[in-house]
Amino acid sequence: MSRKSPIPKMPWAADHQWQLKPYSLFVICFAMALMGIGDGLLVLANLGATPWTIFAQGVALQTGLSIGVVIAIVSLIVLLLWIPLKLRIGLGTLLNVFIIALFVDLTVNYIPTPSGMIARIFLMIFAIVLFGISTTFYLSCQLGAGPRDGLMVGVCLKYGWKVGVVRTTIEVTVALLGLLLGGTLGISTIAFALGVGWIIQFTAIAFQRFSRQTSGEI
């Protein structure tokens, strides 16, 4: 069993998950803001929601609960899955909830909605890439992950599997479950499910190379 983190330790990383290190706090807050913007741009593209949102939609249709309530319940259940993976809640876990939600709202409310299909597709691609890269930045701060990202990291740590494989498997599974429960899939849903994990992995590889170069390793 490998315990090597899939996200390399970077110069801005904190020493522990509750350390109030200014550099780490700046990077994680900025990265999460960009994640919120990416999520908001995906909404504006209007080509389909993310897999977890589709799943929440499906559960809401089956239970009569609101999507917001379902998202909260699902987040709690995912956090419970952290227990066998021996993960701990950190400052980043809390910041994840508030900062991303804030910037999703700001993006949706203040950025114009594109009208043409080409513009919407371009916005979708840009949003997914931005979300994936920003996710790697915030995880590299080592201040703790959000519920879903923590699940990905925990599985990678426990089994030594690649980020791209783990994240894609999780996203595709959630999307299919959402579809079976009555949720509506779109182009963005499929693109996000198949692409975001590999974007995170490629960014992590770039971080690893940068870390080796700065440390003088060959």
Account of the 3D structure:
This protein is an all-alpha fold. The chain has one domain. The protein contains nine helices and no strands. This is YitT family protein. InterPro entries: YczE/YyaS-like. Keywords: Membrane, Transmembrane, Transmembrane helix. Pfam families: DUF6198.
Structural class, please?
Answer: mainly alpha
Topology order in helix (H) and strand (E) letters:
HHHHHHHHH
Biggest sheet record: none
Into which percent range does the helicity of residues fall?
over 70%
From the spread of the alpha carbons, the general shape counts as globular
Number of discrete helical segments: 9
Tally of structural domains: 1
Average of the residue pLDDT scores: 90
Beta-strand proportion: under 5%
- Give me the Rg, rounded: 17 Å
Low-pLDDT runs of 5+ residues are none
- How far the N terminus sits from the C terminus, by CA atoms, comes to 26 Å
DSSP strand count: 0
InterPro entries: YczE/YyaS-like (IPR038750)
Protein name: YitT family protein
Organism: Ursidibacter maritimus
Pfam family, one: DUF6198
Helices, strands, pairings?
Layout: H1 22-45, H2 51-63, H3 67-80, H4 82-85, H5 91-110, H6 117-140, H7 147-159, H8 163-180, H9 187-215
Transmembrane segments: 25-47, 59-82, 89-111, 117-139, 159-181, 187-207
Organism: Ursidibacter maritimus
Keywords: Membrane, Transmembrane, Transmembrane helix
